[in-house]
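Protocol step 4 of 6: structure prediction from sequence.
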Amino acid sequence: MPWPMVHFAISEMLFDGNPTPDLLLGSIAPDAVHVRGQISREEKGATHLVRNGLLPDKVRIVRQFIAYSSMRPEPAWKDFVLGYFSHIYTDVSWTNTLYADFERECAGAEAGAGEGNLRRIYNEEVSQIEFEIQRTRDARIMLERLSTATGFALKPLVTREEVVAYGRQKSEWLNDPSQEPRIQPIYFTVQKVNSFIKETAAEMKELFLA
């Protein structure tokens, strides 16, 4: 699925260039399950509303967003919830578009490539895109805001401690230049990913903020 900078860029567009700290933290919160260490596919699926191996549809995502958003009145809570469910929506859209194209194109170009090789290529390319996005947006401000987020538990999915710890981990990774693969992406180009960000943010504005 897309990595943090894609989620941050969509958050930025949702709030017209002024994302709040808890919107940014919420936008990566479903992946906070990784701070538990070795996790099962089912554990990660649970935080992303997966049922019987199937990703949620848009109707279910919006319904859950409305239900959680109404639980507390604080603006920070509502921003966090919006970020959380925007993450899931983004993952579903990415899976059905850019990732589906990648699997088809890469499998054809890398005849005989196994799942491990596809995963390696994917990780290298999306790592590179993380740094490309940072260079085209004011990532420094977004990461500074992320560090000030309150964070919340979204029961029974993730705890506040997990969410805050994961935000810290991702900030450290993004601030480490040695993590950049320094490759030229073939399947996840800047143009493709920026188009995806723009289109997905526009869709979510209609669904979540109209």
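Step 5 (inspection) to follow. The mean pLDDT is 94.
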